[in-house]
Design brief:
The chain has about 350 residues and is mainly beta. The chain has one domain. Helix content is about 0%, strand content about 60%. It contains 1 helix and 25 strands. Strands 2, 4, 5, 6, 7, 8, 9, 10, 11, 12, 13, 14, 15 and 16 form a 14-stranded antiparallel sheet that branches. Strands 20-19-18-17-25-24-23-22-21 form a 9-stranded antiparallel sheet, with no helix packed on it. It has a two-stranded parallel ribbon with strand order 1-3. A hairpin with a 2-residue loop joins strand 24 and strand 25.
Length: about 350
């Protein structure tokens, strides 16, 4: 299957579905954007209504890192947090920029860059399709991170586009359990990601999302006892119109998963989550160990965001084996947004 170069076709419409070889360019400016009464909207509306974000998760048995750049045009946000499992140390950094000043995200999922700058604080994620490396550079007053994520070896990202509401659509590209190398300087300590056996997950998302939306999400990247790399991306609430963004990766091989049900109590943040899939593959529960929370109520835009980091337990049932998880570290998320 040849790689599809652009998402929007000559008639101004997006292609929907799962793209086994990905998409080169999310050419949203070519989209025939209209309101609910079919009135065609202009270039300014296309730009302002188009949302983009990238999230990088780095996990190891002793260190977890979360990094995000979010461009909502009226405002942008970047956050970075670290959790040292051994010392139980957590620190987060979060920055907002009105009208997305100092923020840029290219429209190519596998090349180009995403960057956020506020004063001397900066977060940059840069992808190159050849040789297939995604680099992460974070320069904060009290934290510096320089990392590379291998996207050249057995790279099979899940790339999908689904309808969102009456006139919108969302494209997302996810990949998990990618080999990660680099250095973190934080809390007067130097961490070597290779020595820690760190693995990375990448979430690249863009589109014309529902005015009000929510999602639940689960993510894991770990080494199994036999040395294989296991990762998964599970979600409910946003990309489920005809297709879903649920998948796992076993040593880089992509395996699709059916719809996933999330059971949890958002008012009891320390209680466990249950995650089960309709096809019986996923039978897991997640025990939060900590969280990053942020509430923004700006009237026009709003966000009630909770991202947990914690441990996964349970079973993954594949045709030829059952994989058991016994406390591997990962993420979960509960998010309401008004864009």
């Amino acid at each position: 299957m040849a790689r599809k170069q652009q998402l929007i076709n000559a008639q101004g419409q997006p292609s929907f579905g799962v793209f086994e070889d990905g998409i080169d360019d999310i050419n949203y400016r070519d989209y025939d954007l209209r309101n609910a009464m079919d009135k065609r909207l202009g270039a300014l509306a296309k730009r302002v209504k188009f949302n983009q974000f990238q999230f990088i998760g780095i996990t190891s048995p002793s260190l977890l890192i979360g990094i995000a750049i979010v461009d909502l045009k009226l405002v942008s946000n970047a956050f970075v947090y670290c959790y040292d499992v051994v010392t139980n140390t957590f620190e987060e950094f979060s920055f907002l920029q009105p009208f997305a000043r100092g923020t840029h995200i290219d429209t190519q999922p596998n090349q180009g860059s995403a960057s956020f700058r506020k004063g001397r604080q900066s977060v940059t994620i840069r992808a190159t399709s050849r040789p297939g490396v995604r680099s992460v550079d974070v320069q904060l007053t009290s934290l510096q991170l320089s990392a590379t994520i291998d996207e050249s070896t057995s790279y099979q990202p899940l790339a999908i586009c689904t309808r969102a509401g009456y006139q919108g659509w969302v494209f997302t590209q996810k990949s998990n359990a990618l080999v990660c190398n680099g250095q973190l300087h934080w809390q007067n300590r130097q961490y070597d990601l290779h020595q820690l056996k760190a693995l990375a997950s990448v979430d690249w998302t863009a589109g014309y999302m529902r005015r009000e939306t929510f999602w639940n999400w689960g993510s894991l990247s770990c080494f199994l006892p036999d040395g294989r790399r296991l990762g998964f991306n599970l979600a409910a609430g946003v990309n489920e119109t005809g297709f879903s963004e649920n998948a796992l990766w076993l040593d880089g091989r992509l395996i699709k998963i059916d719809m996933v049900d999330f059971q949890f109590d958002r008012y009891q943040p320390k209680h466990a989550w249950a995650m089960t899939s309709n096809d019986g593959i996923i039978r897991l529960h997640f025990e939060p160990q900590g969280q990053r929370r942020e509430k923004i109520n700006g009237g026009v835009i709003a966000s009630n965001f909770t991202q947990h980091f914690g441990r996964y337990y349970g079973e993954i049932h594949l045709p030829n084996e059952v994989i058991r998880l016994d406390g591997e570290w990962g993420f979960s998320e509960d998010h309401y947004a008004k864009w």
